[in-house]
Design goal:
2 copies of one chain form a homodimer.
Chain A (H helix, E strand, L loop, with lengths): L13 H15 L7 E2 L1 H8 L3 H13 L3 E4 L3 E4 L4 H25 L2 H20 L6 H16 L3 H22 L5 H17 L3 H33 L2
Helix pairs in contact in A: 1-3, 1-7, 2-3, 4-6, 4-7, 4-8, 4-9, 5-6, 5-8, 6-7, 8-9
Chain A binds a DNA duplex (30 and 30 nucleotides) through helix 3.
DNA sequence: TTCTCTAAGATTGTCGACAATTAATGACTA
DNA sequence: TAGTCATTAATTGTCGACAATCTTAGAGAA
């Protein structure tokens, strides 16, 4: 049976499948951000009944990808600079915590495996310098492993099933590429070193800084877009 | 129209009502922690169809009060010492953040109003020394106001709609009373003073400590219960 | 023209019934 | 007696239809 690549839970029911499919389409922008969702239309498109679709919508709502109003309907969440700040403030606090916990709770072999993953990223990075691979799968995988290393199930769920899709959405649709790639690598290295020496306080600090830098990066993109827009409007 | 006392959103649909009712029953223990939920039975009890009930269950799941397994069903979350630690770790990080933000973003009149509330609590406390009022409505109200003062909507939603009911559940069902009442008051006072002087760093630290103390309190209760149990089993 | 109100249309909320899956019962075998 | 398998019962997942609500279009009045 297939399983969800993020929550690692098996996909059994039809609404599971619709949920995963819609999530991908929303994160990748196939279903446009801010757009209204028509239940009858989407139900037809996915070949399921409205009840099944609504089940999926409920779950999308609980990971912040759609917003509902009673008797009005669903909207895909809109990406705004304000919301980006809010989400990253929360992310920083939670992943900072995860990192501190990981410094205590991550098993030695998990740490080794993560270091290996980093080396692998380095290779890949050299080959496709500046491309988005690292920022996508690679970077996320790094963060995922640390989150998992916290061994705090509630935290893991909150981040993996809750916040991460929204963060991914910002990064995918804002098109994160460029010179931050190599800098991010160094930051990852410093973090894993702090974890390896069980220095939770340092690991937390470094992770928070890493995330701040990442935020500034997305923020820049927003500013650029805003500048473009105001130039066009002249 | 009535409205939800916690999320402040209006209760319009039938599933809204069922959600709020069930939430209260679960938090207060009327619906027993860890127990299995029968959809047909509860639907009959609340006088709604299964579809409506399932809508409510979905929402209860997203605030961590029930857990679902595909083709198996729902269970009310079980209160365990391990989970308590996990939840409080997350809570500490998030409310610490809220407190730091509140030091920057809370309006002067909001601060004044909160100080007034504290005074009011002091009066009440004197009257019903040792009773659970303070720990319930009062303490929660204090925390709510600070969370709201963070002005971070995502954080506010995450705490008010997400984590807080679960925390309430632990506190209500573990029966929080006793000598911590007056100590908690002093801690609250110190926190609001830090916020008033816009010292975010201090406010965050104090809040985290305050929450740690609160956790230790619930933890004690767990240990006591465990000791009782093992004594009975002899 | 602009605003208000009304009526039609479309969308969401809710229901009861059926299909698919899981859990419980009991017969059968070792 | 204990364990395994098949059958039955109960529960969850899914569907299509109806009811309640909101939105839109258009007529009429100021």
């Amino acid at each position: 049976m297939t399983q969800d690549a993020f929550s690692k839970t098996p996909i059994t029911t039809a609404s599971d499948q619709v949920f995963v499919d819609m999530r991908r389409e929303i994160v990748e922008g196939t279903i446009e951000q801010g757009s209204k969702i028509s239940e009858p239309e989407l139900a037809k498109r996915y070949g399921v009944s409205r009840a099944t679709l609504r089940e999926a919508l409920n779950r999308l709502e609980s990971c912040y990808l759609v917003e509902r109003k009673a008797n009005v309907g669903c909207r895909v969440v809109a990406l705004t600079a304000e919301r980006l700040i809010e989400v990253y403030e929360v992310r920083s606090a939670l992943e900072g915590l995860a990192c501190r916990l990981a410094a205590d709770n991550m098993a030695a072999d998990e740490v080794q495996s993560l270091k290996q993953l980093l080396n692998q990223h380095l290779q890949t990075q050299r080959v496709k310098e500046g491309e988005s691979y690292y920022q996508e799968a690679g970077d996320l995988d790094f963060h995922y492993r640390i989150i998992k290393g916290s061994k705090n199930d509630h935290l893991i769920h909150l981040l993996s099933n809750g916040l991460y899709q929204l963060i991914r959405m910002y990064r995918v649709q804002m098109g994160m590429v460029g010179p931050r790639v190599s800098k991010a690598f160094d930051e990852h290295l410093a973090i894993i070193n702090a974890i390896e020496s069980h220095d939770g306080e340092l690991a937390e600090l470094l992770m928070k800084r890493h995330i701040s830098a990442s935020q500034a990066n997305v923020q820049n993109k927003f500013d650029l877009l805003a500048a473009q827009k105001s130039a066009v409007n002249k």
